Amino acid sequence: MTLGDAALQREVLELFDRQIVLLTDRMHTAPPAAVATLAHTLKGSARGIGAWALVSAAEAVESAVAQGDDPAEPLHRLALAGHAVRAAIATLRRAAAS
Question: Averaged over 58-64, what is the pLDDT?
Answer without folding.
Answer: 98
